[in-house]
Design a protein that fits this description.
By secondary structure, the chain is of the alpha+beta class. It is built from 2 helices and 11 strands, in the order H-E-E-E-H-E-E-E-E-E-E-E-E. Strands 4, 5, 8, 9, 10 and 11 form a 6-stranded antiparallel sheet that branches. Strands 1, 2, 3, 6 and 7 form a 5-stranded antiparallel sheet that branches. Strand 10 and strand 11 form a beta hairpin. The termini are far apart.
């Protein structure tokens, strides 16, 4: 019996420690924070493709970390990235709420950076309803594309769009 009690106490202590570590990542006022490192990132819904000046520029998708956070991920197409390196044609991925009240965007990214660009992490329950969409804006040509909306309450996906 003594051994069983020690095991239960160790499990409870570990659970409490993990709970505190996970809770510490929530920012004040819904600000984006780094996702906990123990969470597994998965793609949610359908991605949105963006074309600029008739050239496929890349794809934006929503990512969920399994611990209650969401972000936008944009991946430049290799040819677009090579052909526009050093220009002002940079992509700015964002994740936005259904009622457009909350949004987190990447900032300061340029085409000569990495092919993968991410917005900050946002707690999914910081919006009501907890429905999010990843979008990308490129300032020239066609300006915006979005992946599907994802409702975290019931798992529904709808409404991706591609520009041009």
């Amino acid at each position: 019996m003594l051994k069983l009690r020690k095991t239960r106490r160790a499990i409870a202590l570990t659970a409490a420690t993990l709970g505190l570590a996970g809770g510490a990542a929530i920012g004040v006022g819904g600000t984006a924070q780094a996702a906990p490192s123990s969470c597994t990132t998965i793609d949610i819904g359908s991605p949105g493709n963006i074309n600029v000046g008739g050239v496929y520029a890349g794809q934006v998708e929503q990512q969920y970390d399994g611990c209650g956070y969401v972000r936008a991920h944009f991946q430049y197409s290799h040819n677009y990235w090579l052909g526009h390196s050093g220009t002002a044609w940079s992509a700015h991925p964002c994740v936005q709420t259904l009622n457009y009240v909350g949004q987190a965007c990447a900032s300061g990214d340029t085409v000569d950076g990495p092919q993968d660009v991410y917005s900050g992490w946002v707690p999914i329950h910081s919006a009501n309803p907890d429905t999010w969409q990843a979008i990308v804006t490129i300032p020239y040509g066609c300006s915006q594309a979005g992946g599907s909306w994802h409702a975290y309450a019931n798992g529904a996906n709808w409404g991706e769009y591609s520009s041009c």
